[in-house]
Amino acid sequence: MPVQVIKVVTDEGVEGVCTVGDWRYTELNWQQIATLRELAVGEDPLDRDRLWSKLSAASRFLNPVWWGGFDNCLWDIAGKVAGLPVAELLGGARKSGSAYYNTAGATVEALIRDGEEGLAAGFTTLKDHLAFSFQENIRAFGLFRDAFGDEIGLMHDAALTSYNFDEALEVGKALEAAGFIWFEEPIDDRLHAENKRLCELLDIPIAGAETLMHDPVLGEFWLRSGATDVLRVNARHGLTAVNRLAHIASELGANVEPNSYGPLFGLAHAHVVCGIENVDWFETAPPADGAAMGIEIGLLNPVVPKNGTVTYPATPGLGAEWDWKQFEKKRIAVL
Q1: CB half-sphere exposure, 59, CA atoms < 13 A
Q2: Scanning 2, 42, 130, 161, which has its CA 20 to 30 A from the CA of 104?
Protein backbone atom coordinates (compact mmCIF):
# COMPACT_ATOMS: atom_id res chain seq x y z
CA MET A 1 0.00 0.00 0.00
CA PRO A 2 1.50 3.39 -0.97
CA VAL A 3 2.05 5.88 1.83
CA GLN A 4 2.37 9.57 1.04
CA VAL A 5 4.57 11.66 3.32
CA ILE A 6 4.03 15.41 3.18
CA LYS A 7 6.73 17.95 4.04
CA VAL A 8 6.04 21.63 4.63
CA VAL A 9 9.03 24.00 4.77
CA THR A 10 8.92 27.57 6.10
CA ASP A 11 10.93 30.51 4.81
CA GLU A 12 13.17 30.05 7.86
CA GLY A 13 13.83 26.42 6.95
CA VAL A 14 11.69 24.83 9.68
CA GLU A 15 10.24 21.56 8.40
CA GLY A 16 6.95 19.93 9.29
CA VAL A 17 6.62 16.28 8.26
CA CYS A 18 3.68 13.88 8.52
CA THR A 19 2.05 11.03 6.68
CA VAL A 20 -0.97 12.11 4.65
CA GLY A 21 -3.27 9.62 6.37
CA ASP A 22 -2.90 6.71 8.73
CA TRP A 23 -2.73 3.22 7.24
CA ARG A 24 -5.81 4.02 5.16
CA TYR A 25 -6.75 7.11 3.14
CA THR A 26 -3.08 7.72 2.51
CA GLU A 27 -3.05 9.79 -0.68
CA LEU A 28 -3.72 13.34 -1.83
CA ASN A 29 -4.76 13.62 -5.47
CA TRP A 30 -3.28 16.09 -7.96
CA GLN A 31 -6.15 18.54 -7.54
CA GLN A 32 -5.74 18.67 -3.78
CA ILE A 33 -1.96 19.10 -4.02
CA ALA A 34 -2.42 21.93 -6.54
CA THR A 35 -5.00 23.57 -4.26
CA LEU A 36 -2.61 23.38 -1.29
CA ARG A 37 0.21 24.98 -3.25
CA GLU A 38 -2.02 27.76 -4.54
CA LEU A 39 -3.64 28.62 -1.21
CA ALA A 40 -0.96 27.85 1.38
CA VAL A 41 2.33 29.03 -0.11
CA GLY A 42 3.14 32.46 1.30
CA GLU A 43 0.82 32.16 4.31
CA ASP A 44 1.94 32.25 7.94
CA PRO A 45 2.46 28.59 8.96
CA LEU A 46 1.74 29.47 12.58
CA ASP A 47 -1.72 30.85 11.75
CA ARG A 48 -3.37 27.44 11.59
CA ASP A 49 -6.87 28.81 12.10
CA ARG A 50 -6.60 31.12 9.08
CA LEU A 51 -5.24 28.33 6.89
CA TRP A 52 -7.94 25.95 8.12
CA SER A 53 -10.64 28.49 7.33
CA LYS A 54 -9.15 29.30 3.93
CA LEU A 55 -8.86 25.65 2.87
CA SER A 56 -12.33 24.89 4.18
CA ALA A 57 -13.84 27.72 2.14
CA ALA A 58 -12.05 26.52 -0.99
CA SER A 59 -13.18 22.91 -0.58
CA ARG A 60 -16.83 23.15 -1.54
CA PHE A 61 -16.44 20.43 -4.15
CA LEU A 62 -13.69 18.45 -2.39
CA ASN A 63 -13.88 16.06 0.55
CA PRO A 64 -14.07 17.76 3.97
CA VAL A 65 -10.73 18.26 5.77
CA TRP A 66 -8.71 16.45 3.11
CA TRP A 67 -5.78 18.63 4.23
CA GLY A 68 -5.36 16.87 7.60
CA GLY A 69 -1.79 15.80 6.87
CA PHE A 70 -0.88 19.38 5.95
CA ASP A 71 -2.47 20.63 9.18
CA ASN A 72 -0.41 18.12 11.16
CA CYS A 73 2.74 19.48 9.52
CA LEU A 74 1.76 22.94 10.79
CA TRP A 75 1.53 21.56 14.33
CA ASP A 76 4.95 19.96 13.87
CA ILE A 77 6.33 23.35 12.78
CA ALA A 78 4.61 25.14 15.67
CA GLY A 79 6.16 22.76 18.18
CA LYS A 80 9.62 23.17 16.67
CA VAL A 81 9.32 26.97 16.68
CA ALA A 82 8.12 26.95 20.30
CA GLY A 83 10.64 24.31 21.36
CA LEU A 84 7.82 22.12 22.70
CA PRO A 85 6.35 18.69 21.89
CA VAL A 86 2.94 18.87 20.24
CA ALA A 87 1.44 17.12 23.28
CA GLU A 88 2.29 20.18 25.34
CA LEU A 89 0.78 22.51 22.73
CA LEU A 90 -2.40 20.43 23.02
CA GLY A 91 -2.51 20.86 26.78
CA GLY A 92 0.12 18.58 28.29
CA ALA A 93 -2.44 16.53 30.21
CA ARG A 94 -0.12 13.61 31.03
CA LYS A 95 3.28 12.12 30.26
CA SER A 96 1.90 8.73 29.24
CA GLY A 97 -1.47 7.40 28.16
CA SER A 98 -3.32 4.11 28.39
CA ALA A 99 -3.55 1.84 25.36
CA TYR A 100 -6.05 -0.93 24.75
CA TYR A 101 -5.48 -4.13 22.83
CA ASN A 102 -7.65 -5.14 19.87
CA THR A 103 -8.24 -8.88 19.99
CA ALA A 104 -8.26 -10.93 16.79
CA GLY A 105 -9.54 -14.40 16.00
CA ALA A 106 -12.20 -16.29 14.07
CA THR A 107 -13.72 -18.00 17.11
CA VAL A 108 -14.45 -17.03 20.68
CA GLU A 109 -11.74 -19.42 21.82
CA ALA A 110 -9.19 -17.83 19.49
CA LEU A 111 -10.20 -14.36 20.68
CA ILE A 112 -9.69 -15.41 24.30
CA ARG A 113 -6.25 -16.83 23.48
CA ASP A 114 -5.30 -13.61 21.71
CA GLY A 115 -6.66 -11.56 24.61
CA GLU A 116 -4.46 -13.55 26.97
CA GLU A 117 -1.47 -12.65 24.79
CA GLY A 118 -2.44 -9.01 25.09
CA LEU A 119 -2.65 -9.26 28.86
CA ALA A 120 0.74 -10.99 28.97
CA ALA A 121 2.15 -8.01 27.04
CA GLY A 122 0.98 -5.68 29.78
CA PHE A 123 -2.38 -4.46 28.49
CA THR A 124 -5.24 -4.28 30.98
CA THR A 125 -8.05 -3.40 28.55
CA LEU A 126 -9.22 -5.42 25.54
CA LYS A 127 -11.56 -4.53 22.67
CA ASP A 128 -13.35 -7.08 20.52
CA HIS A 129 -14.72 -6.74 16.99
CA LEU A 130 -17.11 -9.68 17.16
CA ALA A 131 -18.79 -10.46 13.84
CA PHE A 132 -21.26 -13.15 14.91
CA SER A 133 -25.03 -12.87 15.35
CA PHE A 134 -26.23 -10.69 18.19
CA GLN A 135 -27.21 -13.78 20.22
CA GLU A 136 -23.76 -15.34 19.74
CA ASN A 137 -22.09 -12.06 20.59
CA ILE A 138 -24.07 -11.76 23.82
CA ARG A 139 -22.94 -15.25 24.82
CA ALA A 140 -19.36 -14.28 24.01
CA PHE A 141 -19.47 -11.27 26.35
CA GLY A 142 -20.09 -13.57 29.29
CA LEU A 143 -17.34 -15.93 28.18
CA PHE A 144 -14.91 -13.03 27.89
CA ARG A 145 -15.75 -11.79 31.36
CA ASP A 146 -15.38 -15.27 32.83
CA ALA A 147 -12.05 -15.81 31.05
CA PHE A 148 -10.46 -12.44 31.79
CA GLY A 149 -11.94 -11.63 35.18
CA ASP A 150 -13.54 -8.54 36.64
CA GLU A 151 -10.37 -6.46 36.81
CA ILE A 152 -9.82 -6.37 33.04
CA GLY A 153 -11.47 -3.62 31.01
CA LEU A 154 -13.53 -4.80 28.05
CA MET A 155 -15.01 -2.93 25.07
CA HIS A 156 -17.24 -4.08 22.22
CA ASP A 157 -16.92 -2.64 18.71
CA ALA A 158 -19.85 -3.62 16.50
CA ALA A 159 -18.32 -2.34 13.24
CA LEU A 160 -18.24 -5.87 11.79
CA THR A 161 -21.83 -6.65 12.66
CA SER A 162 -25.11 -5.25 11.36
CA TYR A 163 -27.35 -4.93 14.41
CA ASN A 164 -30.78 -3.45 13.96
CA PHE A 165 -32.05 -1.09 16.66
CA ASP A 166 -33.73 -3.75 18.81
CA GLU A 167 -30.71 -6.05 18.61
CA ALA A 168 -28.36 -3.18 19.50
CA LEU A 169 -30.52 -2.33 22.51
CA GLU A 170 -30.42 -5.93 23.73
CA VAL A 171 -26.67 -6.10 23.13
CA GLY A 172 -26.18 -2.86 25.04
CA LYS A 173 -28.04 -4.18 28.06
CA ALA A 174 -25.93 -7.35 27.98
CA LEU A 175 -22.77 -5.23 27.85
CA GLU A 176 -23.98 -3.26 30.87
CA ALA A 177 -24.55 -6.48 32.78
CA ALA A 178 -21.05 -7.68 31.88
CA GLY A 179 -19.45 -4.40 32.94
CA PHE A 180 -18.06 -3.31 29.57
CA ILE A 181 -16.51 0.15 29.21
CA TRP A 182 -18.27 1.22 26.02
CA PHE A 183 -20.39 0.04 23.09
CA GLU A 184 -18.87 1.23 19.82
CA GLU A 185 -20.75 1.86 16.58
CA PRO A 186 -23.84 -0.11 17.64
CA ILE A 187 -25.73 0.72 14.43
CA ASP A 188 -25.05 2.72 11.28
CA ASP A 189 -23.65 6.09 12.38
CA ARG A 190 -25.91 7.90 9.92
CA LEU A 191 -29.07 6.75 11.70
CA HIS A 192 -29.09 9.86 13.84
CA ALA A 193 -32.46 9.44 15.56
CA GLU A 194 -31.85 5.77 16.35
CA ASN A 195 -28.37 6.46 17.76
CA LYS A 196 -29.79 9.27 19.89
CA ARG A 197 -32.47 6.92 21.22
CA LEU A 198 -29.87 4.26 22.10
CA CYS A 199 -27.88 6.86 24.03
CA GLU A 200 -31.03 7.74 25.94
CA LEU A 201 -32.01 4.16 26.73
CA LEU A 202 -28.62 2.71 27.64
CA ASP A 203 -26.34 3.52 30.55
CA ILE A 204 -23.22 2.17 28.82
CA PRO A 205 -21.48 4.96 26.85
CA ILE A 206 -22.01 4.79 23.09
CA ALA A 207 -18.81 5.52 21.15
CA GLY A 208 -19.77 6.61 17.69
CA ALA A 209 -19.63 8.80 14.60
CA GLU A 210 -16.48 6.98 13.46
CA THR A 211 -17.68 6.83 9.86
CA LEU A 212 -18.34 10.58 10.02
CA MET A 213 -14.85 11.52 11.21
CA HIS A 214 -14.01 13.01 7.81
CA ASP A 215 -16.47 15.83 8.56
CA PRO A 216 -15.88 17.46 11.98
CA VAL A 217 -19.08 19.50 11.61
CA LEU A 218 -21.12 16.29 11.57
CA GLY A 219 -19.18 14.91 14.52
CA GLU A 220 -19.93 18.05 16.50
CA PHE A 221 -23.63 17.81 15.64
CA TRP A 222 -23.83 14.14 16.67
CA LEU A 223 -22.17 14.99 19.98
CA ARG A 224 -24.19 18.12 20.76
CA SER A 225 -27.47 16.44 19.84
CA GLY A 226 -26.84 13.39 22.03
CA ALA A 227 -26.44 10.87 19.19
CA THR A 228 -23.14 9.68 20.69
CA ASP A 229 -21.62 9.80 24.16
CA VAL A 230 -17.98 9.37 23.11
CA LEU A 231 -16.90 10.94 19.83
CA ARG A 232 -14.46 8.99 17.69
CA VAL A 233 -11.78 11.10 15.98
CA ASN A 234 -8.69 10.54 13.87
CA ALA A 235 -5.79 12.95 13.41
CA ARG A 236 -5.57 12.03 9.75
CA HIS A 237 -8.26 14.73 9.51
CA GLY A 238 -5.98 17.21 11.26
CA LEU A 239 -4.92 17.86 14.83
CA THR A 240 -6.78 21.16 14.63
CA ALA A 241 -10.07 19.30 14.13
CA VAL A 242 -9.28 16.87 16.97
CA ASN A 243 -8.38 19.72 19.30
CA ARG A 244 -11.50 21.75 18.47
CA LEU A 245 -13.78 18.76 18.94
CA ALA A 246 -12.07 17.91 22.22
CA HIS A 247 -12.82 21.40 23.54
CA ILE A 248 -16.46 21.10 22.50
CA ALA A 249 -16.70 17.64 24.09
CA SER A 250 -15.14 18.97 27.29
CA GLU A 251 -17.84 21.62 27.54
CA LEU A 252 -20.40 18.81 27.33
CA GLY A 253 -18.59 16.59 29.84
CA ALA A 254 -17.67 14.10 27.13
CA ASN A 255 -14.54 12.51 25.65
CA VAL A 256 -13.12 12.27 22.17
CA GLU A 257 -11.24 9.04 21.51
CA PRO A 258 -8.75 8.40 18.67
CA ASN A 259 -9.55 5.70 16.14
CA SER A 260 -6.81 3.27 15.04
CA TYR A 261 -3.04 3.74 15.09
CA GLY A 262 -3.23 7.16 13.49
CA PRO A 263 -0.91 9.31 11.36
CA LEU A 264 2.86 9.11 11.46
CA PHE A 265 2.62 5.51 12.65
CA GLY A 266 1.14 6.29 16.04
CA LEU A 267 3.07 9.45 16.87
CA ALA A 268 0.21 11.88 16.20
CA HIS A 269 -2.21 9.92 18.39
CA ALA A 270 0.40 9.51 21.14
CA HIS A 271 0.51 13.31 21.34
CA VAL A 272 -3.30 13.43 21.37
CA VAL A 273 -3.78 10.91 24.17
CA CYS A 274 -1.06 12.51 26.28
CA GLY A 275 -1.87 16.11 25.46
CA ILE A 276 -5.66 16.36 25.71
CA GLU A 277 -7.36 15.96 29.07
CA ASN A 278 -10.60 14.38 27.85
CA VAL A 279 -8.94 11.53 25.94
CA ASP A 280 -8.50 8.25 27.79
CA TRP A 281 -7.29 5.71 25.24
CA PHE A 282 -4.74 4.97 22.53
CA GLU A 283 -5.89 2.36 20.01
CA THR A 284 -3.02 0.09 19.02
CA ALA A 285 -4.48 -1.19 15.76
CA PRO A 286 -5.36 -1.45 12.96
CA PRO A 287 -2.98 -2.09 11.35
CA ALA A 288 -1.43 -4.78 13.50
CA ASP A 289 1.94 -4.22 11.81
CA GLY A 290 1.87 -0.42 11.92
CA ALA A 291 5.27 -0.01 13.56
CA ALA A 292 6.90 -2.29 11.00
CA MET A 293 5.31 -0.26 8.18
CA GLY A 294 6.88 2.90 9.57
CA ILE A 295 10.29 1.33 10.02
CA GLU A 296 10.19 0.03 6.44
CA ILE A 297 10.04 3.57 5.04
CA GLY A 298 12.66 4.95 7.43
CA LEU A 299 10.76 6.13 10.53
CA LEU A 300 12.98 5.22 13.46
CA ASN A 301 10.52 5.76 16.33
CA PRO A 302 7.01 4.55 15.53
CA VAL A 303 4.87 4.11 18.62
CA VAL A 304 5.07 0.71 20.31
CA PRO A 305 3.04 0.44 23.55
CA LYS A 306 4.94 -0.78 26.59
CA ASN A 307 3.03 -2.41 29.43
CA GLY A 308 -0.21 -1.05 28.04
CA THR A 309 0.94 2.57 27.85
CA VAL A 310 2.27 4.96 25.24
CA THR A 311 4.21 8.17 25.47
CA TYR A 312 5.41 10.83 23.05
CA PRO A 313 8.92 11.94 22.03
CA ALA A 314 10.22 14.68 24.31
CA THR A 315 11.67 16.58 21.34
CA PRO A 316 9.93 19.63 19.80
CA GLY A 317 7.10 19.10 17.33
CA LEU A 318 5.77 15.64 16.57
CA GLY A 319 9.22 14.21 17.31
CA ALA A 320 9.55 11.90 14.31
CA GLU A 321 13.07 10.59 13.75
CA TRP A 322 13.86 9.60 10.18
CA ASP A 323 16.51 7.58 8.41
CA TRP A 324 16.30 9.63 5.23
CA LYS A 325 18.61 7.26 3.33
CA GLN A 326 16.16 4.44 3.96
CA PHE A 327 13.31 6.77 3.03
CA GLU A 328 14.98 7.57 -0.31
CA LYS A 329 15.42 3.86 -1.02
CA LYS A 330 11.69 3.34 -0.63
CA ARG A 331 10.47 6.52 -2.28
CA ILE A 332 8.93 5.95 -5.70
CA ALA A 333 7.75 9.46 -6.63
CA VAL A 334 7.73 13.14 -5.71
CA LEU A 335 4.50 15.02 -6.35
Answers
A1: 18
A2: 2
